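seq as requested:
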Amino acid sequence: MNINYPGIIHRLNHTQVWVLQPIELEINSAQFVALLKAYQPHWDMPFGILYDSRDDYFYVYRSGFVVGKYRFVEKEDNRYRCLEMYGNRNNNDCLVIFEVLQEACRHHQVPVNRTGLEAMILKTRELVEADSRNEMY
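struct tokens:
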């Protein structure tokens, strides 16, 4: 089955479906290139990633659904920081970017500092939870 993810993304970007979420994610240039090269989703990793150069965002998808939207900016020290993470109101799995990063790096044989990544995951979860609490008040 061939799914037109660029078409799905185009529709989502024009329907106000994205919700900005806080994120703490910084990667090196080799890891950024691994995300750009992407990989084919498979049984053990059903999420895929694609980069749309027209709007400069990465999109994570699964089984016909686009679950997250991410923008990285290059810093002066040859590292990339994710400045924007958007969850889809209908399928809010946007934190899966951390698993997708690990899979892209594994697929392209790029090392990942697991301790550093786990710290960023924990910090992002804290930020998301705090943001959720603030929205309730």
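The two ends are 44 Å apart (CA to CA).
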